[in-house]
Fold this protein.
Amino acid sequence: MPERVAIILAAGVSSRMNTQLPKVLHEVCGRPMLAYVLDACRGVGVQKLYVVVGFGGDEVEEAFQGTDDIVWVKQTEQRGTAHAVLSCKQYLKDFQGQTLVLCGDGPLVRAEMLQTLIGKHEMERAAATLATAVLDDPTGYGRIVRDRYGNIQGIVEDANCAREQLAIREVNPSYYLFNNQILFEAAEQVEPDNVKHEYYLTDAVSRIIATGHKVVAVTAVRPEEAVGVNSRAQLSVASKIMQRRIQQELMDYGVTIVDPDTTWIDARAKIGLDTVIEPFTYIHGEVRIGGGCRVGPFAYLRSGTVLEDDVVLGVFTEIKNSTLAEGVRARHHSYIGDANVGRNVNVGAGSITANFDGQKVNKTYIGDNCYVGSGAILIAPLVLKDGSHIAAGTVVSQESIDELGRKE
């Protein structure tokens, strides 16, 4: 098998997003856009990822610190996609394998599609292979120009298309695979002969064709996978598509989602077999839910939450950074934050853990088989022993428990 690396283009500034945050760090279903692109590359055996950064590069690096398969490449001025690729030459000038080139703002890329691209490239023994899409509305995309035999003749950027080329529906979503040495030879010959006076990677493809190397295009990209993110509206579209994927995968696994259209589940969440997610439930962050649970409607689970098996959370219940053991019931209007809740605990309506004292967040520990009545306030830091019974409307602090113990 040939060695394979990836160049990820993540240096651009998106004026249409009107943001101070680097575009590739904007989240889609709880994860930065760039994270999805990196994972797709890893899914097809890429062992080294060269991420080209520019605007906000330090922020991007910090967001992925501790990741040892990434090489950060600084592009000091953004002069187009071919220029960005050439920024990696110092690392790849002697590399003899395959190089994927992808955009960091394309979170909907899938490893399965990249595998199709790789398979076509190797079967055809091509110098360069593109994965293309056919769209009902190709506006904004580079068009794939083929001859009457179906051979690719080049890619014309939308801004440079002649009238007849604007009617072409096969487009270039910027998923490329090159033989590395041929890529850099062609990129070095690109001239900024276009409307924006930038060095386009698409012109490098034309150079490869002109020098007699074999270039092929495989129509392997679903229309949804062609969606890049250049505006807040496109970010919303990408998030909705990703949310459908997340929920479909969960349902295929054995999770019941009663109404997917009114449910939001973070990409990092894990949910067990035969759990039911009721409408208007919002699961955000690294949340783990066991099997046979029922969550919602109108429940809010925040990062750090762990529900073990057979937990029931009802309407307007919020859980944050807490572990609820098997058999816990918190059916309505409760808040449990920064707590460890034991087995078979009942939390009554409107009961809360008061976890913040104005200066720091404190923990609550509730033992097994406890009963917390409606409207109770548990003031952290607090430890309730197994079998404790808290009457409705009671305000409980550690001092009050200790005082009661002294009286007994």
Remarks:
- Residues 232-407 form a domain with the UDP N-Acetylglucosamine Acyltransferase; domain 1 fold (CATH 2.160.10.10).
- The chain has two domains: 4-226, 232-407.
